[in-house]
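Figure 6 in text form: structure in, sequence out.
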């Protein structure tokens, strides 16, 4: 099939996908599968091969990251049920100053969202956010922006959140490198969100109306976990994955013997996240030990929808990678040398149209994977930065077609107009900050 027709088929398929999700309100899992059929069959792939590629793509991606997603969701459930999230916020507040509740919620959100979906993280931390706002009579517009922006930055940029880890696997990017660079990009994004909360969102006063105070929250959980056990389920897996990447550097800083082999083993994402799960089990108070199975089971249930959408994204990616998209648009790419701007802008367009950041990541990475050579991004750092460029684009912008927009506004007592001025505004700022930082890293290292 002619290259231009291939591109048109993909574009029409994506438009229909957007229409199905936003207008017809069909679940993304179903829409992704229907889009896969549409693009595959009209793109010239035989019916038998379409089914084979779909099932292969679905199975391969879940085989690669399915256990990681389940483990991350279990850890998030444990942080919520045990009160460890409250311990983390208290620890950060004590470290940076008792009056810096806005910055505390930004940092807490950024840490919690590393293994947890930002929507879930905001719901979990919302009672604490309101209680912290009431303590100093800080507008919920400010508190919501601070918490939401912290959650959003790591959700879009730092594995093992499902979107970034899916993209890393699809592009065969070094996960440890993606984590380290993702943190380097996420920190300025978090700072940008915090400054937006302080200087822009502060113009809109939304009175905090907490159902509980900080003190009553502490009483609700009873004896809270200590700080080190609370942070460990998140930070230990990240450190282990990063050490694995360092151990595999060409310079072999840990040698080529047993130490390197050990670090490579425990730094595998599956192993590292399983270790994180066992660390999270230590958060369960003795009085609730009988509920261990229920809490773990709830984490597995929560992972179900994420796994379904991720698998469907893998099916679509399998089809997109089979089509000759690289040949169809390589001339354009080489002529204009768009580099990392292409994945970023594609993600921006789909994010603005679809709303769901994770669905955007799953879709765009399948389109970009065959184009890495034409974009000059086949080196290790190029692949990692491509993951981050798509993540940055998937931030821009969160508005009324994004479920996260409604989670933030409803749980913070903001009307949609205020939501556009706060949530939509800071997501634009964070996306721009992120792609600027990514471009600077690329200019230095590529």
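Output sequence:
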């Amino acid at each position: 099939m002619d290259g231009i027709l291939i591109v048109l088929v993909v574009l029409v398929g994506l438009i229909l996908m957007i229409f199905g999700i936003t207008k017809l309100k069909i679940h993304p899992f179903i829409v992704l599968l229907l889009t896969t059929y549409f693009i595959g069959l009209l793109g010239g792939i035989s019916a038998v091969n379409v089914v084979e590629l779909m099932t292969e793509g679905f199975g391969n991606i879940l085989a690669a990251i399915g256990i990681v997603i389940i483990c991350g969701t279990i850890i998030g459930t444990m942080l919520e049920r045990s009160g460890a999230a409250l311990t983390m916020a208290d620890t950060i507040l004590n470290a940076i100053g008792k009056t810096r509740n806005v910055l505390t919620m930004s940092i807490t959100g950024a840490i919690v969202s590393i293994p947890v979906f930002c929507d879930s993280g905001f719901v979990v931390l919302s009672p604490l956010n309101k209680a912290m706002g009431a303590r100093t009579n800080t507008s919920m517009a400010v508190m919501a922006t601070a918490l939401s922006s912290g959650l959003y930055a790591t959700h879009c940029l730092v594995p093992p959140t499902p979107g970034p880890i899916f993209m890393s696997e699809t592009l065969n990017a070094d996960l440890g490198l993606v984590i380290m660079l993702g943190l380097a990009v996420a920190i300025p994004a978090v700072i940008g969100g915090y400054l937006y909360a302080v200087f822009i969102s502060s113009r809109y006063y939304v009175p905090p109306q907490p159902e509980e105070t900080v003190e009553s929250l502490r009483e609700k959980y009873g004896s809270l976990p200590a700080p080190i056990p609370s942070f460990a389920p998140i930070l230990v897996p990240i450190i282990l994955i990063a050490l694995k990447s360092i151990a595999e550097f060409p310079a072999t800083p840990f040698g080529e013997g047993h130490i390197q082999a050990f670090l490579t083993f425990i730094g595998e994402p599956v192993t590292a996240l399983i270790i994180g799960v066992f660390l999270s089990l230590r958060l369960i108070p003795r009085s609730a030990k009988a509920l261990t199975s229920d809490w773990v089971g709830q984490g597995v249930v929560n992972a179900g929808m994420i796994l379904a959408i991720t698998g469907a994204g893998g099916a679509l990616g399998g089809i997109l990678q089979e089509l000759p998209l690289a040949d169809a648009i390589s001339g354009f790419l080489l002529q204009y040398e768009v580099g990392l701007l292409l994945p970023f802008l594609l993600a921006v367009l789909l994010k603005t149209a679809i709303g769901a950041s994770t669905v955007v990541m799953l879709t765009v990475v399948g389109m970009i994977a065959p184009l890495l050579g034409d974009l000059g991004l086949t080196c290790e750092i190029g692949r990692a930065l491509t993951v981050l460029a798509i993540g940055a684009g998937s931030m821009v912008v969160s508005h009324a077609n994004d479920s996260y927009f409604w989670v933030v506004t409803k749980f913070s007592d903001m009307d949609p107009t205020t939501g556009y001025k706060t949530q939509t505004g800071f997501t634009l700022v964070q996306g721009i900050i992120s792609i600027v930082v990514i471009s600077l890293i690329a200019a230095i290292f590529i």
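Caption detail: The radius of gyration is 22 Å.
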